[in-house]
Structures are given as structure tokens and as C-alpha cells.
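Section 5: illustrative case.
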């Protein structure tokens, strides 16, 4: 999974041929660290159907502010460059996969 900065956000999201899941996180966030292996597993299983990127809110505060991110981890699904769904908080692999599949259908 690629970690992107504010300056890369538009290019990564708007120019993607597939939906993009952005994980807004921070290094100091325990639930964010718990979500990481789950997110990696699901991203690997999704293959070419979904692109998953991460954004550190401490390094890139502009984008999370623009999307109203108030807590972390926050996941935002983008389709065709537009935010279509948001989920805050950690979750199990099965719940994450179900939430992603719901957004992709």
C-alpha cells in the first residue's frame, strides 16, 4: 500500500481507473495499527478491483480536513474521483471486506 501526501491526492484519486480506498491514519494511533494488517490482507485479495492508499493526517492535514475527517482511522471510498462512502474506526477483516464489497457493487 502506498502512502500518499496532500500533493498527490488528486492525481491518485481522480486518475484512477478503479475505485480507491483511502485510509486516513496516524503513526501514534493504536486502532490504526490494528487495522493495518487487516487492510493489507483485504487489499491483496481485492487485486485489481480496488486501489488502497494511506494518508498520514500528521504529514498531510489538508486533505483529511477537506473531507471532514474527525477521528482515525477513517476510510473513505472514492469512485470516479468522488467520495461515495465513509467508515470511521477499526473493524474486523470480514466486516471490512463486506463494507468494501457493498461499495463496489
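Designed sequence:
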Amino acid at each position: 500500500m502506498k502512502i500518499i501526501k496532500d500533493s498527490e491526492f488528486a492525481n491518485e484519486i481522480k486518475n484512477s481507473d478503479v475505485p480507491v480506498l483511502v485510509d486516513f491514519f496516524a503513526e501514534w494511533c493504536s486502532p490504526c495499527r490494528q487495522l493495518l494488517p487487516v487492510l493489507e490482507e483485504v487489499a491483496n485479495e481485492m487485486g485489481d478491483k480496488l486501489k488502497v492508499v494511506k494518508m498520514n493526517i500528521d504529514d498531510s492535514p489538508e486533505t483529511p480536513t477537506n473531507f471532514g475527517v474527525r477521528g482515525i482511522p477513517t476510510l473513505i471510498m472514492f469512485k470516479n474521483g468522488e467520495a461515495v462512502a465513509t467508515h470511521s474506526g477499526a473493524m474486523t477483516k470480514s466486516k471490512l471486506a463486506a463494507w468494501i464489497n457493498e461499495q463496489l457493487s
